[in-house]
Protein backbone atom coordinates (compact mmCIF):
# COMPACT_ATOMS: atom_id res chain seq x y z
CA UNK A 1 0.00 0.00 0.00
CA UNK A 2 1.48 3.31 -1.14
CA UNK A 3 -0.08 5.97 1.11
CA UNK A 4 0.04 9.60 -0.05
CA UNK A 5 -0.64 12.62 2.19
CA UNK A 6 -2.89 15.33 0.77
CA UNK A 7 -3.61 17.22 3.98
CA UNK A 8 -3.02 16.77 7.72
CA UNK A 9 -6.16 14.64 8.04
CA UNK A 10 -6.44 13.01 4.60
CA UNK A 11 -4.42 10.29 2.87
CA UNK A 12 -5.11 8.51 -0.41
CA UNK A 13 -3.88 5.36 -2.10
CA UNK A 14 -4.53 2.81 -4.79
CA UNK A 15 -6.86 -0.17 -4.23
CA UNK A 16 -6.77 -1.41 -0.63
CA UNK A 17 -6.33 -5.01 0.45
CA UNK A 18 -8.00 -6.42 3.54
CA UNK A 19 -4.58 -6.68 5.17
CA UNK A 20 -4.05 -2.91 4.75
CA UNK A 21 -6.86 -1.99 7.13
CA UNK A 22 -4.91 -2.85 10.27
CA UNK A 23 -2.03 -0.68 9.05
CA UNK A 24 -4.41 2.24 8.51
CA UNK A 25 -5.66 1.84 12.08
CA UNK A 26 -2.08 2.09 13.34
CA UNK A 27 -1.73 5.35 11.41
CA UNK A 28 -4.76 6.77 13.23
CA UNK A 29 -7.26 6.45 10.38
CA UNK A 30 -10.85 6.31 11.66
CA UNK A 31 -12.72 6.73 8.36
CA UNK A 32 -12.22 4.98 5.01
CA UNK A 33 -13.83 6.21 1.77
CA UNK A 34 -13.99 3.95 -1.27
CA UNK A 35 -14.20 5.87 -4.56
CA UNK A 36 -13.86 2.85 -6.85
CA UNK A 37 -16.97 1.19 -8.34
CA UNK A 38 -17.32 -2.51 -7.63
CA UNK A 39 -16.14 -4.87 -10.38
CA UNK A 40 -13.86 -2.37 -12.10
CA UNK A 41 -10.86 -4.75 -12.14
CA UNK A 42 -10.41 -8.53 -12.06
CA UNK A 43 -8.09 -8.39 -9.04
CA UNK A 44 -10.14 -5.80 -7.11
CA UNK A 45 -10.89 -6.52 -3.46
CA UNK A 46 -14.67 -6.23 -2.96
CA UNK A 47 -15.76 -3.22 -0.89
CA UNK A 48 -17.71 -5.51 1.44
CA UNK A 49 -14.46 -7.23 2.44
CA UNK A 50 -12.83 -3.87 3.23
CA UNK A 51 -15.94 -2.80 5.14
CA UNK A 52 -15.99 -5.98 7.24
CA UNK A 53 -12.30 -5.58 8.09
CA UNK A 54 -12.89 -1.92 8.98
CA UNK A 55 -15.65 -2.89 11.42
CA UNK A 56 -13.25 -5.21 13.21
CA UNK A 57 -10.94 -2.23 13.75
CA UNK A 58 -13.75 0.19 14.66
CA UNK A 59 -13.23 2.24 11.49
CA UNK A 60 -16.11 3.89 9.64
CA UNK A 61 -16.45 2.93 5.98
CA UNK A 62 -18.20 4.90 3.22
CA UNK A 63 -18.87 3.91 -0.40
CA UNK A 64 -18.77 6.87 -2.82
CA UNK A 65 -18.08 5.30 -6.23
CA UNK A 66 -16.92 7.50 -9.08
CA UNK A 67 -16.52 6.53 -12.73
CA UNK A 68 -12.98 7.14 -13.94
CA UNK A 69 -12.62 10.52 -15.64
CA UNK A 70 -16.18 11.55 -14.78
CA UNK A 71 -15.88 13.18 -11.36
CA UNK A 72 -19.03 15.25 -10.91
CA UNK A 73 -19.42 18.37 -8.78
CA UNK A 74 -22.05 16.70 -6.58
CA UNK A 75 -19.70 13.80 -5.90
CA UNK A 76 -16.96 16.23 -4.92
CA UNK A 77 -19.41 18.01 -2.63
CA UNK A 78 -20.39 14.70 -1.00
CA UNK A 79 -16.71 13.89 -0.52
CA UNK A 80 -16.18 17.28 1.10
CA UNK A 81 -19.07 16.67 3.50
CA UNK A 82 -17.57 13.34 4.55
CA UNK A 83 -14.30 15.13 5.31
CA UNK A 84 -16.13 17.75 7.37
CA UNK A 85 -18.05 15.25 9.48
CA UNK A 86 -15.10 12.94 10.12
CA UNK A 87 -13.67 13.40 13.63
CA UNK A 88 -10.33 11.80 12.89
CA UNK A 89 -8.01 11.05 9.99
CA UNK A 90 -9.57 9.91 6.72
CA UNK A 91 -8.18 7.59 4.05
CA UNK A 92 -9.68 7.50 0.54
CA UNK A 93 -8.84 5.04 -2.23
CA UNK A 94 -9.69 4.15 -5.81
CA UNK A 95 -7.71 2.36 -8.53
CA UNK A 96 -4.70 4.67 -8.42
CA UNK A 97 -5.65 7.42 -5.96
CA UNK A 98 -6.34 9.84 -8.81
CA UNK A 99 -10.12 9.95 -8.43
CA UNK A 100 -9.87 10.38 -4.67
CA UNK A 101 -7.40 13.22 -5.17
CA UNK A 102 -9.61 14.84 -7.79
CA UNK A 103 -12.60 14.68 -5.44
CA UNK A 104 -10.53 16.30 -2.70
CA UNK A 105 -9.17 19.00 -5.02
CA UNK A 106 -12.65 19.96 -6.24
CA UNK A 107 -14.06 19.89 -2.72
CA UNK A 108 -11.40 22.39 -1.63
CA UNK A 109 -12.37 25.00 -4.21
CA UNK A 110 -12.88 28.31 -2.44
CA UNK A 111 -11.48 26.97 0.81
CA UNK A 112 -7.80 27.39 -0.02
CA UNK A 113 -5.80 28.94 -2.87
CA UNK A 114 -5.74 27.03 -6.14
CA UNK A 115 -1.94 27.04 -6.15
CA UNK A 116 -1.89 25.28 -2.78
CA UNK A 117 -4.36 22.61 -3.95
CA UNK A 118 -2.40 21.86 -7.12
CA UNK A 119 0.93 21.90 -5.26
CA UNK A 120 -0.32 19.52 -2.54
CA UNK A 121 -1.62 17.11 -5.15
CA UNK A 122 1.61 17.32 -7.15
CA UNK A 123 3.68 16.60 -4.04
CA UNK A 124 1.62 13.44 -3.59
CA UNK A 125 2.24 12.47 -7.21
CA UNK A 126 -1.07 13.53 -8.79
CA UNK A 127 -1.37 16.09 -11.60
CA UNK A 128 -4.44 18.29 -11.10
CA UNK A 129 -3.71 20.61 -14.01
CA UNK A 130 -6.54 19.01 -15.96
CA UNK A 131 -9.12 20.11 -13.38
CA UNK A 132 -7.45 23.34 -12.33
CA UNK A 133 -9.90 25.43 -14.33
CA UNK A 134 -12.84 23.68 -12.68
CA UNK A 135 -11.33 24.36 -9.27
CA UNK A 136 -10.78 28.01 -10.10
CA UNK A 137 -14.17 28.33 -11.77
CA UNK A 138 -12.67 29.89 -14.89
CA UNK A 139 -12.45 28.69 -18.50
CA UNK A 140 -9.37 27.37 -20.17
CA UNK A 141 -7.99 24.52 -22.26
CA UNK A 142 -7.38 21.05 -20.88
CA UNK A 143 -3.74 20.05 -21.01
CA UNK A 144 -3.01 17.83 -24.02
CA UNK A 145 -0.46 15.07 -24.22
CA UNK A 146 1.49 14.00 -27.28
CA UNK A 147 -0.13 12.52 -30.37
CA UNK A 148 0.68 8.93 -31.36
CA UNK A 149 0.33 6.97 -34.58
CA UNK A 150 -1.58 4.29 -32.65
CA UNK A 151 -3.08 4.50 -29.17
CA UNK A 152 -4.13 1.23 -27.55
CA UNK A 153 -6.56 1.31 -24.63
CA UNK A 154 -5.87 -1.74 -22.49
CA UNK A 155 -2.72 -3.60 -21.50
CA UNK A 156 -4.23 -7.06 -21.35
CA UNK A 157 -3.73 -9.91 -23.78
CA UNK A 158 -5.40 -8.03 -26.65
CA UNK A 159 -3.64 -4.70 -26.17
CA UNK A 160 -0.10 -5.96 -25.70
CA UNK A 161 -0.40 -8.56 -28.48
CA UNK A 162 -1.65 -5.95 -30.92
CA UNK A 163 1.16 -3.55 -30.02
CA UNK A 164 3.75 -6.29 -30.48
CA UNK A 165 2.27 -7.38 -33.81
CA UNK A 166 2.27 -3.79 -35.05
CA UNK A 167 5.87 -3.18 -34.03
CA UNK A 168 6.95 -6.49 -35.58
CA UNK A 169 5.63 -5.14 -38.89
CA UNK A 170 6.78 -1.53 -38.54
CA UNK A 171 8.99 -0.54 -35.62
CA UNK A 172 8.93 3.11 -36.66
CA UNK A 173 5.35 3.54 -35.41
CA UNK A 174 4.78 5.64 -32.32
CA UNK A 175 2.51 3.52 -30.11
CA UNK A 176 1.08 4.23 -26.67
CA UNK A 177 -0.60 1.67 -24.40
CA UNK A 178 -2.98 3.12 -21.82
CA UNK A 179 -3.16 0.78 -18.84
CA UNK A 180 -3.37 1.61 -15.12
CA UNK A 181 -2.59 -1.86 -13.72
CA UNK A 182 0.89 -2.80 -12.55
CA UNK A 183 0.22 -6.55 -12.87
CA UNK A 184 -0.71 -8.61 -15.91
CA UNK A 185 -2.57 -11.90 -15.52
CA UNK A 186 -2.77 -15.06 -17.61
CA UNK A 187 -6.42 -15.52 -16.78
CA UNK A 188 -6.92 -18.89 -18.55
CA UNK A 189 -4.60 -20.29 -15.88
CA UNK A 190 -7.01 -19.53 -13.03
CA UNK A 191 -9.07 -22.63 -13.85
CA UNK A 192 -5.90 -24.65 -13.26
CA UNK A 193 -5.22 -22.78 -10.01
CA UNK A 194 -8.69 -23.76 -8.86
CA UNK A 195 -7.77 -27.39 -9.47
CA UNK A 196 -4.36 -27.30 -7.78
CA UNK A 197 -2.46 -27.63 -11.08
CA UNK A 198 -0.97 -24.12 -11.22
CA UNK A 199 -0.01 -21.77 -8.41
CA UNK A 200 -1.44 -18.23 -8.54
CA UNK A 201 2.06 -16.83 -9.02
CA UNK A 202 2.43 -18.73 -12.29
CA UNK A 203 -0.35 -16.61 -13.77
CA UNK A 204 1.03 -13.18 -12.86
CA UNK A 205 3.75 -10.93 -14.30
CA UNK A 206 4.83 -7.32 -13.88
CA UNK A 207 3.20 -5.13 -16.52
CA UNK A 208 6.45 -3.24 -17.00
CA UNK A 209 8.18 -6.42 -18.18
CA UNK A 210 5.56 -7.08 -20.87
CA UNK A 211 5.17 -3.69 -22.55
CA UNK A 212 6.89 -4.23 -25.92
CA UNK A 213 10.07 -2.29 -26.67
CA UNK A 214 9.16 0.70 -28.78
CA UNK A 215 5.76 1.25 -27.14
CA UNK A 216 5.06 3.95 -24.56
CA UNK A 217 3.26 2.82 -21.40
CA UNK A 218 0.88 5.48 -20.13
CA UNK A 219 0.09 4.28 -16.63
CA UNK A 220 -3.38 5.76 -16.31
CA UNK A 221 -6.97 4.72 -16.79
CA UNK A 222 -8.86 5.75 -19.89
CA UNK A 223 -12.06 7.52 -18.93
CA UNK A 224 -13.80 8.70 -22.11
CA UNK A 225 -13.47 9.07 -25.87
CA UNK A 226 -13.96 11.93 -28.30
CA UNK A 227 -13.72 10.17 -31.68
CA UNK A 228 -14.59 13.33 -33.57
CA UNK A 229 -11.40 14.93 -32.24
CA UNK A 230 -9.34 11.71 -32.17
CA UNK A 231 -8.75 11.96 -28.44
CA UNK A 232 -8.92 9.75 -25.37
CA UNK A 233 -9.64 11.33 -21.99
CA UNK A 234 -7.56 9.95 -19.12
CA UNK A 235 -8.15 10.09 -15.41
CA UNK A 236 -7.60 13.64 -14.24
CA UNK A 237 -9.18 14.85 -17.51
CA UNK A 238 -5.90 14.79 -19.41
CA UNK A 239 -6.15 14.20 -23.17
CA UNK A 240 -4.13 12.04 -25.51
CA UNK A 241 -4.42 12.26 -29.29
CA UNK A 242 -4.20 9.47 -31.82
CA UNK A 243 -4.14 8.94 -35.56
CA UNK A 244 -5.59 5.43 -35.05
CA UNK A 245 -7.12 3.87 -31.97
CA UNK A 246 -7.37 0.29 -30.71
CA UNK A 247 -9.95 -0.33 -27.98
CA UNK A 248 -9.18 -3.43 -25.90
CA UNK A 249 -9.84 -2.83 -22.18
CA UNK A 250 -11.37 -6.25 -21.54
CA UNK A 251 -14.60 -6.99 -19.71
CA UNK A 252 -16.10 -6.02 -16.35
CA UNK A 253 -17.01 -8.76 -13.90
CA UNK A 254 -20.27 -7.55 -12.40
CA UNK A 255 -20.11 -9.12 -8.93
CA UNK A 256 -22.81 -6.72 -7.78
CA UNK A 257 -25.16 -8.20 -10.38
CA UNK A 258 -25.91 -11.04 -7.95
CA UNK A 259 -27.42 -9.89 -4.66
CA UNK A 260 -25.29 -10.76 -1.64
CA UNK A 261 -22.42 -12.21 -3.67
CA UNK A 262 -19.78 -9.57 -2.90
CA UNK A 263 -20.41 -9.85 0.85
CA UNK A 264 -19.76 -13.59 0.94
CA UNK A 265 -17.06 -14.17 -1.69
CA UNK A 266 -14.10 -16.08 -0.29
CA UNK A 267 -16.02 -17.46 2.69
CA UNK A 268 -19.09 -19.57 3.53
CA UNK A 269 -18.11 -21.96 0.74
CA UNK A 270 -18.59 -19.29 -1.96
CA UNK A 271 -15.83 -19.09 -4.57
CA UNK A 272 -15.01 -18.24 -8.17
CA UNK A 273 -12.12 -19.04 -10.50
CA UNK A 274 -12.84 -15.72 -12.24
CA UNK A 275 -10.94 -13.90 -9.48
CA UNK A 276 -7.18 -14.21 -8.92
CA UNK A 277 -7.54 -14.16 -5.13
CA UNK A 278 -10.39 -16.70 -5.07
CA UNK A 279 -9.11 -19.49 -7.32
CA UNK A 280 -6.95 -20.93 -4.47
CA UNK A 281 -10.07 -20.98 -2.27
CA UNK A 282 -11.79 -23.12 -4.90
CA UNK A 283 -9.04 -25.72 -4.56
CA UNK A 284 -9.24 -25.53 -0.77
CA UNK A 285 -13.00 -26.14 -0.83
CA UNK A 286 -12.67 -29.03 -3.28
CA UNK A 287 -10.10 -30.81 -1.13
CA UNK A 288 -12.07 -30.32 2.08
CA UNK A 289 -15.49 -31.35 0.79
CA UNK A 290 -16.12 -34.99 1.66
CA UNK A 291 -19.90 -34.89 1.36
CA UNK A 292 -22.79 -32.51 0.78
CA UNK A 293 -23.91 -30.41 -2.16
CA UNK A 294 -21.70 -28.54 -4.65
CA UNK A 295 -23.27 -26.03 -7.03
CA UNK A 296 -21.69 -24.57 -10.16
CA UNK A 297 -23.33 -21.62 -11.94
CA UNK A 298 -23.18 -19.89 -15.31
CA UNK A 299 -24.79 -16.47 -16.02
CA UNK A 300 -26.38 -15.22 -19.25
CA UNK A 301 -24.07 -14.66 -22.19
CA UNK A 302 -21.80 -13.04 -23.12
CA UNK A 303 -19.04 -14.03 -20.72
CA UNK A 304 -15.33 -14.60 -21.13
CA UNK A 305 -14.49 -18.25 -21.73
CA UNK A 306 -17.99 -19.69 -21.77
CA UNK A 307 -16.62 -23.13 -20.87
CA UNK A 308 -14.92 -22.01 -17.64
CA UNK A 309 -17.94 -22.53 -15.34
CA UNK A 310 -18.25 -26.16 -16.34
CA UNK A 311 -14.47 -26.65 -16.33
CA UNK A 312 -14.59 -25.92 -12.60
CA UNK A 313 -17.29 -28.57 -12.22
CA UNK A 314 -15.39 -31.22 -14.18
CA UNK A 315 -12.06 -30.73 -12.41
CA UNK A 316 -13.68 -30.63 -8.98
CA UNK A 317 -15.71 -33.73 -9.77
CA UNK A 318 -12.63 -35.53 -11.04
CA UNK A 319 -10.89 -34.93 -7.70
CA UNK A 320 -13.88 -36.28 -5.79
CA UNK A 321 -14.15 -39.23 -8.18
CA UNK A 322 -10.50 -40.20 -7.77
CA UNK A 323 -10.70 -39.79 -3.99
CA UNK A 324 -13.75 -42.07 -3.69
CA UNK A 325 -16.11 -39.49 -2.22
CA UNK A 326 -18.13 -38.52 -5.28
CA UNK A 327 -21.06 -40.72 -4.21
CA UNK A 328 -21.38 -38.56 -1.10
CA UNK A 329 -21.54 -35.29 -3.06
CA UNK A 330 -24.56 -33.95 -4.93
CA UNK A 331 -23.11 -32.11 -7.95
CA UNK A 332 -25.42 -29.65 -9.67
CA UNK A 333 -24.80 -27.31 -12.62
CA UNK A 334 -27.07 -24.28 -13.01
CA UNK A 335 -26.94 -22.50 -16.37
CA UNK A 336 -28.91 -19.38 -17.24
CA UNK A 337 -28.79 -20.58 -20.84
CA UNK A 338 -30.57 -23.45 -22.53
CA UNK A 339 -27.66 -25.74 -23.47
CA UNK A 340 -24.49 -27.13 -21.93
CA UNK A 341 -22.28 -25.90 -24.78
CA UNK A 342 -23.12 -23.86 -27.84
CA UNK A 343 -21.40 -26.08 -30.44
CA UNK A 344 -23.21 -29.40 -30.69
CA UNK A 345 -20.22 -31.42 -31.97
CA UNK A 346 -18.64 -31.32 -28.51
CA UNK A 347 -21.74 -32.28 -26.52
CA UNK A 348 -21.41 -36.12 -26.69
CA UNK A 349 -18.00 -36.09 -25.00
CA UNK A 350 -19.12 -33.56 -22.39
CA UNK A 351 -22.32 -35.45 -21.61
CA UNK A 352 -20.32 -38.62 -20.99
CA UNK A 353 -18.44 -36.82 -18.22
CA UNK A 354 -21.63 -35.34 -16.80
CA UNK A 355 -22.91 -38.93 -16.52
CA UNK A 356 -19.62 -40.19 -15.08
CA UNK A 357 -19.73 -37.59 -12.31
CA UNK A 358 -23.50 -38.05 -11.77
CA UNK A 359 -23.98 -34.31 -12.10
CA UNK A 360 -27.45 -32.88 -12.62
CA UNK A 361 -27.89 -30.21 -15.30
CA UNK A 362 -30.33 -27.37 -14.71
CA UNK A 363 -30.88 -25.04 -17.66
CA UNK A 364 -32.65 -21.68 -17.73
CA UNK A 365 -31.74 -21.13 -14.07
CA UNK A 366 -30.28 -17.67 -13.45
CA UNK A 367 -28.47 -17.09 -10.16
CA UNK A 368 -29.83 -13.85 -8.67
CA UNK A 369 -28.97 -13.99 -4.96
CA UNK A 370 -26.71 -15.71 -2.44
CA UNK A 371 -27.17 -15.79 1.31
CA UNK A 372 -23.72 -16.82 2.50
CA UNK A 373 -24.63 -17.18 6.16
CA UNK A 374 -27.50 -19.54 5.32
CA UNK A 375 -25.51 -21.17 2.51
CA UNK A 376 -28.44 -20.76 0.16
CA UNK A 377 -28.50 -19.79 -3.51
CA UNK A 378 -31.54 -18.30 -5.24
CA UNK A 379 -32.31 -18.83 -8.91
CA UNK A 380 -34.80 -17.17 -11.23
CA UNK A 381 -36.71 -19.54 -13.48
CA UNK A 382 -39.78 -19.31 -15.67
CA UNK A 383 -42.67 -21.38 -14.31
CA UNK A 384 -45.19 -23.38 -16.31
CA UNK A 385 -47.38 -20.28 -16.63
CA UNK A 386 -44.54 -18.30 -18.21
CA UNK A 387 -44.00 -16.14 -15.14
CA UNK A 388 -40.67 -15.56 -13.37
CA UNK A 389 -40.26 -17.49 -10.14
CA UNK A 390 -37.49 -17.67 -7.53
CA UNK A 391 -36.37 -21.04 -6.20
CA UNK A 392 -33.71 -21.73 -3.57
CA UNK A 393 -31.04 -24.36 -3.16
CA UNK A 394 -28.81 -24.95 -0.15
CA UNK A 395 -25.13 -25.70 -0.70
CA UNK A 396 -21.93 -26.68 1.04
CA UNK A 397 -19.85 -25.23 -1.80
CA UNK A 398 -20.79 -22.99 -4.72
CA UNK A 399 -18.61 -21.90 -7.63
CA UNK A 400 -20.01 -18.71 -9.17
CA UNK A 401 -19.36 -17.19 -12.55
CA UNK A 402 -20.43 -13.52 -12.28
CA UNK A 403 -22.48 -11.76 -14.96
CA UNK A 404 -20.29 -9.66 -17.24
CA UNK A 405 -20.59 -6.36 -19.07
CA UNK A 406 -18.34 -3.91 -20.88
CA UNK A 407 -16.41 -1.49 -18.61
CA UNK A 408 -18.37 1.56 -17.45
CA UNK A 409 -16.36 4.07 -19.50
CA UNK A 410 -16.95 1.96 -22.61
CA UNK A 411 -20.69 1.62 -22.08
CA UNK A 412 -21.06 5.38 -21.66
CA UNK A 413 -18.98 6.13 -24.79
CA UNK A 414 -20.08 6.86 -28.38
CA UNK A 415 -18.28 3.70 -29.56
CA UNK A 416 -20.85 1.10 -28.52
CA UNK A 417 -23.86 -0.69 -29.94
CA UNK A 418 -27.23 -0.86 -28.20
CA UNK A 419 -26.00 -3.67 -25.93
CA UNK A 420 -22.99 -1.65 -24.73
CA UNK A 421 -20.17 -3.38 -26.65
CA UNK A 422 -17.74 -1.70 -29.06
CA UNK A 423 -19.44 -1.82 -32.45
CA UNK A 424 -17.12 -3.42 -35.03
CA UNK A 425 -17.31 -5.15 -38.38
CA UNK A 426 -17.01 -8.84 -37.39
CA UNK A 427 -14.71 -9.60 -40.32
CA UNK A 428 -12.21 -6.72 -40.19
CA UNK A 429 -12.70 -5.71 -36.50
CA UNK A 430 -12.84 -2.11 -37.68
CA UNK A 431 -15.38 0.20 -36.06
CA UNK A 432 -18.56 0.50 -38.07
CA UNK A 433 -18.77 4.30 -37.74
CA UNK A 434 -15.24 5.53 -37.04
CA UNK A 435 -12.82 4.31 -39.71
CA UNK A 436 -9.65 4.93 -37.66
CA UNK A 437 -10.78 2.83 -34.69
CA UNK A 438 -10.46 -0.93 -34.19
CA UNK A 439 -11.47 -3.16 -31.32
CA UNK A 440 -10.73 -6.73 -30.28
CA UNK A 441 -10.89 -9.03 -27.31
CA UNK A 442 -13.71 -9.27 -24.80
CA UNK A 443 -15.07 -5.73 -25.32
CA UNK A 444 -15.82 -6.03 -29.06
CA UNK A 445 -19.28 -7.07 -30.24
CA UNK A 446 -18.02 -9.59 -32.82
CA UNK A 447 -20.02 -12.82 -32.25
CA UNK A 448 -17.09 -15.05 -31.38
CA UNK A 449 -16.17 -16.82 -28.15
CA UNK A 450 -14.46 -14.41 -25.76
CA UNK A 451 -11.25 -16.36 -25.20
CA UNK A 452 -7.50 -15.82 -25.18
CA UNK A 453 -7.29 -18.01 -28.28
CA UNK A 454 -9.58 -15.62 -30.13
CA UNK A 455 -7.29 -12.72 -29.24
CA UNK A 456 -4.28 -14.68 -30.47
CA UNK A 457 -5.86 -14.67 -33.95
CA UNK A 458 -7.46 -11.22 -33.76
CA UNK A 459 -4.32 -9.25 -32.83
CA UNK A 460 -2.36 -9.96 -36.04
CA UNK A 461 -5.48 -9.24 -38.10
CA UNK A 462 -5.97 -5.85 -36.45
CA UNK A 463 -2.25 -5.09 -36.88
CA UNK A 464 -2.38 -6.07 -40.55
CA UNK A 465 -5.44 -3.92 -41.17
CA UNK A 466 -4.06 -0.87 -39.38
CA UNK A 467 -0.88 -1.04 -41.48
CA UNK A 468 -3.00 -1.43 -44.62
CA UNK A 469 -4.98 1.66 -43.62
CA UNK A 470 -1.80 3.66 -43.04
CA UNK A 471 -0.54 2.66 -46.49
CA UNK A 472 -3.88 3.39 -48.13
CA UNK A 473 -4.42 -0.22 -49.20
CA UNK A 474 -7.97 -1.41 -49.76
CA UNK A 475 -7.65 -5.16 -49.18
CA UNK A 476 -7.91 -6.17 -45.53
CA UNK A 477 -7.37 -9.34 -43.52
CA UNK A 478 -10.54 -11.08 -42.40
CA UNK A 479 -11.29 -12.77 -39.08
CA UNK A 480 -13.25 -16.02 -39.25
CA UNK A 481 -14.46 -15.93 -35.66
CA UNK A 482 -11.90 -18.45 -34.40
CA UNK A 483 -12.03 -19.20 -30.72
CA UNK A 484 -10.89 -22.10 -28.59
CA UNK A 485 -12.10 -23.51 -25.31
CA UNK A 486 -9.95 -26.29 -23.79
CA UNK A 487 -12.63 -28.08 -21.75
CA UNK A 488 -10.77 -29.72 -18.85
CA UNK A 489 -13.05 -32.72 -18.35
CA UNK A 490 -10.60 -34.41 -15.97
CA UNK A 491 -7.09 -33.88 -14.72
CA UNK A 492 -5.02 -35.15 -17.63
CA UNK A 493 -7.64 -34.96 -20.40
CA UNK A 494 -9.23 -32.14 -22.38
CA UNK A 495 -11.91 -31.79 -25.02
CA UNK A 496 -10.32 -29.12 -27.22
CA UNK A 497 -13.17 -27.12 -28.70
CA UNK A 498 -12.03 -24.96 -31.65
CA UNK A 499 -14.67 -23.20 -33.70
CA UNK A 500 -15.54 -20.01 -35.56
CA UNK A 501 -18.54 -18.01 -36.63
CA UNK A 502 -21.72 -20.08 -36.83
CA UNK A 503 -20.17 -22.91 -34.81
CA UNK A 504 -17.98 -24.06 -37.71
CA UNK A 505 -15.22 -26.37 -36.47
CA UNK A 506 -11.78 -24.85 -37.02
CA UNK A 507 -9.17 -27.29 -35.71
CA UNK A 508 -5.65 -25.89 -35.76
CA UNK A 509 -3.85 -29.24 -35.43
CA UNK A 510 -4.16 -32.50 -37.43
CA UNK A 511 -6.92 -34.83 -36.29
CA UNK A 512 -4.43 -37.66 -35.79
CA UNK A 513 -2.68 -35.53 -33.18
CA UNK A 514 -5.72 -34.03 -31.43
CA UNK A 515 -9.31 -34.92 -32.24
CA UNK A 516 -11.03 -31.99 -30.59
CA UNK A 517 -14.38 -33.70 -30.20
CA UNK A 518 -12.89 -36.38 -27.95
CA UNK A 519 -11.01 -36.08 -24.64
CA UNK A 520 -7.25 -36.42 -25.11
CA UNK A 521 -4.04 -36.29 -23.10
CA UNK A 522 -2.33 -34.42 -25.93
CA UNK A 523 -4.79 -31.56 -25.50
CA UNK A 524 -4.07 -31.51 -21.74
CA UNK A 525 -0.33 -31.29 -22.46
CA UNK A 526 -1.08 -28.37 -24.78
CA UNK A 527 -3.11 -26.61 -22.08
CA UNK A 528 -0.76 -27.28 -19.17
CA UNK A 529 2.67 -27.00 -20.78
CA UNK A 530 2.46 -25.29 -24.16
CA UNK A 531 -0.22 -22.60 -23.96
CA UNK A 532 1.34 -20.64 -21.07
CA UNK A 533 4.67 -20.62 -22.95
CA UNK A 534 2.94 -19.60 -26.19
CA UNK A 535 1.19 -16.81 -24.30
CA UNK A 536 4.16 -15.32 -22.44
CA UNK A 537 6.92 -15.97 -24.99
CA UNK A 538 5.00 -15.89 -28.24
CA UNK A 539 1.70 -14.08 -28.38
CA UNK A 540 2.65 -11.14 -26.14
CA UNK A 541 5.93 -10.71 -28.01
CA UNK A 542 4.45 -10.58 -31.51
CA UNK A 543 5.46 -14.11 -32.51
CA UNK A 544 2.42 -15.21 -34.46
CA UNK A 545 2.76 -18.99 -34.22
CA UNK A 546 -0.02 -20.91 -36.02
CA UNK A 547 -1.51 -17.57 -37.08
CA UNK A 548 -1.34 -16.21 -40.62
CA UNK A 549 -3.67 -13.30 -41.43
CA UNK A 550 -5.17 -13.76 -44.87
CA UNK A 551 -5.97 -10.67 -46.92
CA UNK A 552 -9.29 -10.84 -48.72
CA UNK A 553 -9.75 -9.41 -52.19
CA UNK A 554 -13.34 -8.62 -51.23
CA UNK A 555 -12.39 -6.01 -48.62
Automatic annotation (TrEMBL):
Domain FAD/NAD(P)-binding: 148-268
InterPro entries, A to Z: BLH_phosphatase-like (IPR005939), FAD/NAD-bd_sf (IPR036188), FAD/NAD-binding_dom (IPR023753), Prot-tyrosine_phosphatase-like (IPR029021), Sulphide_quinone_reductase (IPR015904)
Chain ranges passing through the membrane: none
Enzyme Commission (EC) number: 3.-.-.-
Domain Beta-lactamase hydrolase-like protein phosphatase-like, residue spans: 4-110
EC top class named in words: hydrolase
Pfam families in the record: BLH_phosphatase, Pyr_redox_2
Domain of life: Bacteria
Keywords, in A-Z order: FAD, Flavoprotein, Hydrolase, Oxidoreductase, Quinone, Transit peptide
UniProt GO molecular function: FAD binding; hydrolase activity; quinone binding; sulfide:quinone oxidoreductase activity
Cofactors, names only: FAD
Biological processes per GO annotation: sulfide oxidation, using sulfide:quinone oxidoreductase
Name of the protein in its database record: Beta-lactamase hydrolase-like protein
Natural source organism: Zhongshania aliphaticivorans
Source lineage: Bacteria, Pseudomonadati, Pseudomonadota, Gammaproteobacteria, Cellvibrionales
Annotated gene: blh
Amino acid sequence: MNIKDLSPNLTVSEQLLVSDVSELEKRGVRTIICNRPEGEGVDQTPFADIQNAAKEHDIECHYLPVIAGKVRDEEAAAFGELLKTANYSVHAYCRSGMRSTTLWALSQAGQQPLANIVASAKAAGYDMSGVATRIAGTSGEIHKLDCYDVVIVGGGAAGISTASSLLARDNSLSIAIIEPAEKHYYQPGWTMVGAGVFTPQQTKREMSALIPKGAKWIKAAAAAFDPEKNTVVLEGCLLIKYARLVVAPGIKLNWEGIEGLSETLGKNGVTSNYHYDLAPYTWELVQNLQGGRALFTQPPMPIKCAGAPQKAMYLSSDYWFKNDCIDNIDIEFYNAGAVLFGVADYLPALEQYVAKYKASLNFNHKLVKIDGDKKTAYFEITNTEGQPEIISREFDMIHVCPPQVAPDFIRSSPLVDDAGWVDVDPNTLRHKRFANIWSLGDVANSPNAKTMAAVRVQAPIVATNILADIKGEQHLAHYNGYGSCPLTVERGKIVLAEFGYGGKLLPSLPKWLINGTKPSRAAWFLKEKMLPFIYWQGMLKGKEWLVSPKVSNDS
